[in-house]
């Protein structure tokens, strides 16, 4: 039985009737740009996220760029961001004209190492972008403390963590701004590109709304230079159909993850890293070596509501990750490396000052060892068992075989 990494049609098929009705409604009224569809979806997201200001935009990437533009971050400014994340996090910083400064990450939760972030602050640092990678919140207590101490803006990249929480607070609504993505593979997937900028600050919200339409206010008068960052009305209407199902999708992902954690932990040389080793690469290395751990399962901290956009494991032996990927692929099981190259290693950032690319050792180790398994909501028990069986088969083979 093939097990794809993601099954978008399986998610949308049960909603086909409602999605077609939304399409017909938009086709009928012909208001394709902003207007009531976008406003209704923004209100629905705001209501679902503790009354934050929600501004519909063209993508998660543009939400990040719009946040930076709204905060007037640009040439001469430095922005701290993790080295281990999707490219857009740092791409947006560079597009704003600022310098991304890459920060190492935690070997347990994969999120930004706030101690390394503090060490990399300079007189030019304006903001920090914690990424809630794979659906689990970054250490927002430490991020907000650091930002408060040094007067930095906080832009949460919650692209992979729509609906996740940190100590009960919704990810994306804790910092100065938050960015959501509705790319089809994200937890709330649209039928194309879409995103949302969140902020609790009414003045920033107002400014972002203007920048979304070229800085126009009133119409055809421009005190600011913005861009076209608009969310399509059609996409807003379709996402409005899917939003009420988000909590169910998240529950299904969490149940799939729990099932994997239970079944995979019974296999030989498989374990979950203790949460106490958060941010300590050496503790994890020593624990893995002394306990003879070959495969580390993902850790979800008790204070986080993890939304499991990805279920990401880590292989500790050199070359094991690539062999496992080959093994799973040969058995028709989808899997992917998020991410094979860290951001400080990207060729396009080679021109950045050396100081913005140093000391990301844990990020490099993760890029060599991680692999993400299928965890999408529609995954069946039989499919999960197929994945577990293939993993068991792999672990019977000696490392370096
Ligand atoms: C997907 C993603 C983005 C970009 O979102 P798009 O909607 O695809 O532009 C940004 N950051 C992270 C961490 C992502 O996973």
Question: How is this fold's topology laid out?
Answer:
Layout lengths: L7 H5 L3 H14 L5 H14 L4 E5 L2 H11 L7 E5 L5 H8 L3 E5 L10 H6 L5 E4 L11 H11 L2 E5 L7 E2 L2 E2 L6 E5 L13 E5 L2 H11 L20 H10 L3 H20 L4 E3 L8 H10 L4 E3 L6 E2 L5 E5 L4 H11 L30 H9 E4 L7 H16 L5
Parallel strand pairs: 2-3, 2-4, 4-5, 5-8, 10-11
Antiparallel strand pairs: 1-9, 6-7, 6-12, 8-9, 11-13, 13-14
Helix pairs in contact: 2-9, 3-9, 4-5, 4-8, 10-14
This protein binds pyridoxal-5'-phosphate (PLP).
The site of pyridoxal-5'-phosphate has 15 residues, from helix 4 and helix 5.
Please give a structural write-up:
This protein is α/β, with parallel strands linked by helices. 39% of the residues lie in helices and 14% in strands. It has 14 helices and 14 strands. The chain has helices at 8-12, 16-29, 35-48, 60-70, 88-95, 114-119, 140-150, 202-212, 233-242, 246-265, 281-290, 320-330, 361-369, 381-396; strands at residues 53-57, 78-82, 99-103, 125-128, 153-157, 165-166, 169-170, 177-181, 195-199, 270-272, 295-297, 304-305, 311-315, 370-373. A seven-stranded mixed beta sheet has the order 1-9-8-5-4-2-3, sandwiched between helices. Strand 6 (165-166) and strand 7 form a beta hairpin. The longest helix has 20 residues, at 246-265. The protein is globular, with a radius of gyration of 21 Å. The chain starts with 7 loop residues before the first helix and ends in a 5-residue tail after the last helix. The structure holds pyridoxal-5'-phosphate (PLP).
């Amino acid at each position: 039985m093939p097990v794809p990494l993601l099954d978008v049609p399986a998610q949308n098929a049960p909603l086909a009737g409602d999605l077609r009705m939304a399409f017909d409604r938009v086709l009928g009224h012909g208001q394709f740009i902003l207007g009531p569809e976008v406003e209704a979806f923004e209100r629905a997201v705001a209501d679902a996220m503790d009354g934050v200001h929600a501004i519909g935009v063209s993508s998660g990437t543009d939400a990040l760029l719009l946040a930076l533009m709204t905060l007037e971050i640009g040439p001469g400014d430095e922005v701290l961001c993790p080295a281990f994340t999707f490219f857009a996090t740092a791409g947006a910083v560079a597009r704003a004209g600022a310098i991304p400064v890459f920060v190492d990450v935690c070997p347990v939760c994969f999120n930004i190492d706030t101690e390394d972030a503090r060490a990399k602050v300079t007189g030019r640092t304006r903001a920090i972008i914690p990424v809630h990678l794979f659906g689990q919140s970054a250490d927002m207590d430490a991020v907000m403390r650091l930002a408060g101490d040094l007067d930095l803006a906080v832009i949460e990249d919650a692209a992979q963590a729509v609906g996740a929480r940190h100590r009960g607070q919704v990810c994306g609504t804790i910092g100065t701004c938050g960015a959501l993505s509705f790319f089809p593979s994200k937890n709330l997937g649209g039928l194309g590109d879409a995103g949302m900028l969140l902020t609790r600050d009414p003045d920033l919200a107002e400014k972002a709304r203007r920048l979304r339409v070229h800085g126009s206010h009133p119409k055809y008068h421009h005190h600011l230079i913005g861009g076209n960052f608009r969310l399509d009305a059609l996409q807003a209407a379709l996402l409005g159909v899917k939003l009420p199902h988000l909590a169910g999708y998240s529950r299904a992902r969490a149940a799939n993850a729990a099932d994997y954690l239970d079944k995979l932990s019974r296999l030989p040389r498989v374990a979950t890293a203790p949460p106490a080793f958060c941010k300590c690469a050496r503790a994890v290395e020593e624990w893995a070596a002394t306990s003879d751990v070959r495969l580390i399962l993902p850790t979800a901290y008790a204070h986080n509501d993890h939304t499991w956009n990805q279920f990401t494991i880590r292989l500790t032996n050199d070359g094991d990750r690539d062999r496992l990927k080959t093994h799973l692929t040969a058995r028709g099981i989808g899997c992917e490396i998020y991410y094979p190259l860290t951001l400080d290693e990207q060729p396009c950032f080679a021109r950045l000052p050396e100081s913005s690319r140093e000391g990301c050792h844990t990020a490099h180790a993760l890029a060599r060892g991680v692999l993400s398994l299928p965890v999408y909501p529609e995954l069946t028990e039989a499919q999960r068992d197929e994945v577990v069986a293939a993993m068991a088969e792999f672990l019977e083979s000696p490392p370096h075989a």
